[in-house]
Amino acid sequence: MSDNTSGFRQMAPEPEFGLTEAQRRMQQQLMALTGVAQSVFNLETQQLSWNTRAYQMFGVSPAGSPITLEVAMCLVYPDDLALLVRARDQLRQAPGAIELDYRIIRPDGGLLDVHSLLYLESDAQGRPLAYVELSLDVTERKRVESALIQSARLCRVLDKVSTDGYWEQATAGQAASSMETLAAPQAAPKPAANGPQRKMRVLYVEDNMYNLMLFDDVMRTRDDVEVRMAQNGAQGFEVAGNWQPDVLVLDGRLPDTHGIELLHRMRELPGLRTTPAFMCSADTLPEHKILAEQAGFTGYWSKPVDFDKVFDELDRVAANSDLR
Predict the structure, then answer these.
(1) Helix or strand or coil: residue 38?
(2) Residues 292-311: tens digit of each pLDDT
């Protein structure tokens, strides 16, 4: 059985979840060979025992004081502790095993990702004897997975700032629009008054790739926003001319220009004279904000960006435009 809301996966009972003492010793030998950490908490004696690999994984010396449940729980990452406690409580209510991921903080400050199988060992009469946890250090696997996700996001953003992809599509769209106008000069019916007429077009000009990735990820949560991006002033200027955005978001310091200068140039493009523009900059001094306001920017977003504020600004733009 899998519960997507609990944070762990529960499995039906299996014979190996009720081991005899001899079987447990055999299991411990197998754990040593495979590098699996084993933790056994005896419910009768309230004592916790670890195999050698568990001591290594948790970064605790077996030569020190006997490990206790309280000490072990203190090594669990605080945000994940409730998940582990909830999994153990669930085992007391329903037999079987639970599979879950959590993090530990070693005494040396190292943070590890752990994948665990947790089950309640019982005797022949079904009476609970001990909690048994079999764990693997999956930190490297998680790191690789994260790197792959980052790479995929980076490729997506790079594709978004690909000049060919942007501008060929924009040019084709403009050509199609011109043909439709020649073929059908009559006025098009107006969309319904309620709801957006089309997605809001937001152009984000930023040279930092990770800022582009973050902005793209967050904007994907909005169904009413379409984002295009550029990594320098020249790209941004050309995208603005071909695509005619509804909102301009310009970094202050770009490789080839400053956001203020870029806005001055964009204001000369057809249809962009009054387009709302927001400066997005790490410069937080009051004079920088004053200069941006004097240059015609509608607002100033300091980095790291407060996306709640961004969403409020975009909603205001939409409410005061022909998008709604």
Answers:
(1) strand
(2) 999 999 999 998 888 999 99
